[in-house]
Amino acid sequence: MLYAILCYHQEDVVCSWSKEEDDAVMQKLAVIQERLAREGRLGPVARLMPTTAATTLRKDREPPLVIDGPFAETKEQLLGFYIVDCGSLDEALAIAKELGQANPGGSYELRPVALFNPAGAPATPASAGA
Amino acid sequence: MMDVDWIGATLTAARPQALAALLRAFRDLDMAEEALQEACLRALRTWPQNGPPRDAAAWLIMVGRNVAIDTVRRRRREAPLPDEEVLSERDDAESALAEELDESHYRDDILRLLFVCCHPDLPDAQQIALALRIVSGLSVKEIARAFLVGESAMEQRLTRAKRKVASADVPFEAPSPPERAARVATVMAAIYLVFNEGYAASGGDAHLRLPLCEEAIRLARLLLRLFPTEPEIMGLSALLLLQHSRAAARLDADGDIVLLDDQDRGRWDGRLIAEGLALLDKAMRHRQPGPYQLQAAIAALHARAKKPEDTDWAQIELLYGALERLSPSPVVTLNRAVAVWKQRGPAAALALIAPLRETLSGYFYFHGLEGALLDKLGRTGEAKVALDRAIALAHSPAEAAHIRRQIDRLTAPGPGAEVAARTAAADAPAASDTTR
Questions:
Q1: How far apart are CA A84 and CA A40, in angstroms?
Q2: What is the chain A residue with the closest CA to B237?
Q3: What are φ and ψ of residue A83, in 5° steps?
Q4: Do residues B164 and B175 touch, judged by C-beta distance below 8 A?
């Protein structure tokens, strides 16, 4: 089963990290990611820019409305995600806990992936692997 | 995991909101500051044991408010309020307070705080100092170091600024829309000043003060979140990110200035460039150009050039022309002259800056550019006079040393003069320059 690990954190806090602190966190996360990749369990990983860089398209009307800023104003913002291939929710939680050790604060939302379509490949059921 | 770095970053991030809410509660800057400081001390003491609160800003506001009330009550010899160790377990109290901190309050609180610090009655230097002290939470010592004055002098400057703000009677009500627009422009200008102070220090030994640049970027992001649809704030944020992306390449290992043409572009920070370009893209969609967007667009053209010779000087000249029409300034014309030089040669550039001589006679970059152009035209004697003037006006030892190297190359025959002419060029204001 593929899980998306959606990373929520206060961007104010993340943006307050010095470059050294940021690099240190990314370094710790890279170690975990390298291991997961070796085990063939890691799919795409993305870190998103701050929500100030976001644009939202409201498509519930015609013509659609383009709005500056994120879809929702929230206390913690979606700042990135991982796709991981796990046998069970427990396994996914174990990975999330490990990532959380390296990058404290905020929350991870674990969401099973229903459809996975890496660029260019035909859509496959999510369980076929990351 | 609750390490000290994490607590530090959390407190820094929560500071503007917490202080702004305490200012609303007490309507007194000193009292709000003292309350927040005490709350932060208690956070450092209790968070490592009790774990972090769900909402750091709400925790600080609640503890800060209680500290202040407690102080007043103690003075009246009344019973103290429960302390924060008990309070932090009362999740319901915290969430009630968090709800009270709804978005409209948050916006108005932070804006009021920014408006207080960037009050038009305050001289620029006081605005910057106050913003760094109050909003960013830098210590008096840190700010004093940044401005190269003694700690007590800075303390006095801050006290004067606070007194003036208190007597200026900044309204606690939300300002009217037109008034707000004017105040936002003042805040943008103050953020730009903070950045420039870090980008090209106006005195002292250090040519760059990167923490000030980082702080300015943080403030710009904060302002943009309050006004997410304002293209000029996007432009300002983009400009600061793009300029700051070159920080690592702007000085060499010896601390000497490296001009844009000679910088190792591999050392430019790709992440900052990408964010700057994304914000500029968003801003341009609004089709309401302004000075910050134009300057960001110029910075973007430099950022996009993989090699110096790829730089689109024609477009840069057009953008400086547009900037001159929008906000005429001899400094902008001076910058346009660099673009003219790159396209039509030094004689055309020299003709363009000649009328600026009187206005910019006290301006370091004018003489630097003039010297380089004269040298390029083989007028070595005049070039030396211009560069000597530039040295006398240099803001930092790095700037002076940089010009001195140019003079050395002037007098040395051979290919040295060619190199000097290619690399020596004027620039500034810092955030709209074309050569650094």
A1: 9
A2: A52
A3: -115, 125
A4: no
Residue A41: domain span: 2-48+78-115
Q: What is this structure's pTM?
A: 0.83
Give the per-residue pLDDT at A123: 64
Nearest alpha carbon to residue B432 among B265, B295, B337, B301: B295
Q: Which residues of B touch A17 (CB under 8 A)?
A: 9
pLDDT tens digits for range B295-343:
999 999 999 999 999 999 999 999 999 999 999 999 999 999 999 999 9
Min Cα distance B13 → chain A (Å) is 5
Counting the structural domains of chain A, the total is 1
Domain extent, residue B427, equals: 337-432
Q: What would the mean pLDDT of B62-78 be, rounded to a whole number?
A: 80
Distance CA(B155)–CA(B113), nearest Å, equals 19
Dihedral, B314, B317, B319, B320 alpha carbons, nearest 10: 170
| DSSP code for A49 | P
CB-closest option in A17, A52, A55 to B9: A17
- A109 to each of A15, A32, B39, how far by Cα in Å? 21, 18, 31
pLDDT at B418 over 80: no
Dist. CA A13–CA A18, nearest whole Å: 10
* Residue A39 covered by a domain: yes
pLDDT, tens digit (0-9, with 9 covering 90-100), for A25-49: 999 999 999 999 999 999 999 999 9
Residue A125 scores a pLDDT above 70: no
Instruction: Render B259-306 in DSSP notation, one character per residue.
Output: -GGGS-GGGS-HHHHHHHHHHHHHHHTT----HHHHHHHHHHHHHH-S
Which of B3, B9, B229 faces A16 most closely, judged by CB atoms?
B9
The ipTM of this complex is 0.86
| Cross-strand partners of A5 | A82, A110
Domain count, chain B: 3
Burial class of residue B388, CB neighbours in 10 A (0-12, 13-18, 19+): middle
Assess if residue B116 is contained within a domain: yes
Amino acid at residue number A76: E
Pair (B119, B209) in one structural domain: yes
Q: Would residue A25 count as lying in a domain?
A: yes
Instruction: Inspect the interface and report whether the beta carbons of A49 and B228 lie closer than 8 Å.
Output: no
